[in-house]
Fold this protein.
Amino acid sequence: MNIHEYQGKEILKSFGVRVQEGIVAETPEQAVEAASTLKEQTGTGWWVVKAQIHAGGRGKGGGVKLAKSLEEVQEKAAKIIGMQLVTPQTGPEGKKVNKVLIAQDVYYPGASEHKEFYMSVLLDRATGRNIIMYSPEGGMDIEEVAAKTPDKIFKEEVDPKVGLQAFQARKVAFNFGLEGAAFKEMVKFVSALYKAYEGTDSSLFEINPVLKTSDDKIMAVDAKVNLDDNALYRHPDYAAMRDLAEEDPTEVEAGKSNLNYVKLDGNVGCMVNGAGLAMATMDIIKLAGGEPANFLDVGGTASAKTVEAAFHIILQDPNVKAILINIFGGIVRCDRVAQGVIDAYQNIGDIKVPIIVRLQGTNAEEAKKLIDESGLQVYSAIALQEAADLVTEVLKN
């Protein structure tokens, strides 16, 4: 689960990580109030107005602005709130900005002595271990740094048996070329950041930039945090941070029906039980000349009601030209799925896209009989290749 920058900073702060202070606002008036409060708390005279969306590269799209007066705070907040912000990570459609973070200016006098670094903590799936990835080239696209100057990307692998060791935190500070007070501050920062990553059951903590100020403080100026959905039951306070406005409405609706759904850009809707079978079905569609319009796993205990809900979700995509239902009846009974197909047809009404149904396993014969006797315009398949051939056929018509 992605969360906003201001939420990520709240989490970091709770683990002892120094962060750029800020207050979130949803209106220009609230932005001015936030700026006034920050001035009282931190003494800052300039502020950074930062769009809060679940995407990086906000500055490139005009979503991060420096304000040198309260009037500018209001003016720039008014321009950013409500805008459709397009960044390299949002796609051409962009994302609507519903709130901004008013942050203190941390690039105070002595800016020539400021240094920016990149740091992230994540799981290296190749080794099954957490790693700290870092670079002295902060504030830039890390992909660009990796491509042009790979020697400036460092990795510190953490042994899960012993956790992050003090010498590893010191190694990070050493590779950043720090010394004195800044060195000690960075060691504390690295240790606290790793504790935050582990303590929140996160899959990613990315800080870009990590800033060394002119007076040798080390702080997180930005925070990109991804929390592991599977561990949210242990963190109800973090689960409450979910911002549904930042997610695809169809995926949100699917979640309410306990469906595993991911929208894609293709033309063939998929309804499958089991993630592995879903991936194989998507391969079949591509081999047949189509493109998957979604990943949709109805789960092992799908009922007629679940299948009907899945139909509603798939048909919301105007790009869908056909639907392939591929169910292997193990725990789930094929006749339940078939009844769901029939119910969906009757309740939704005029379904104009062709439907291909492949049901194998528990009660498959009963399921085929239900569909055959329903009078619905449904293509029935037994083998995977037969289903692929039917996809090819219906897409040509």
About this structure: The chain is about 35% helix and 25% strand.
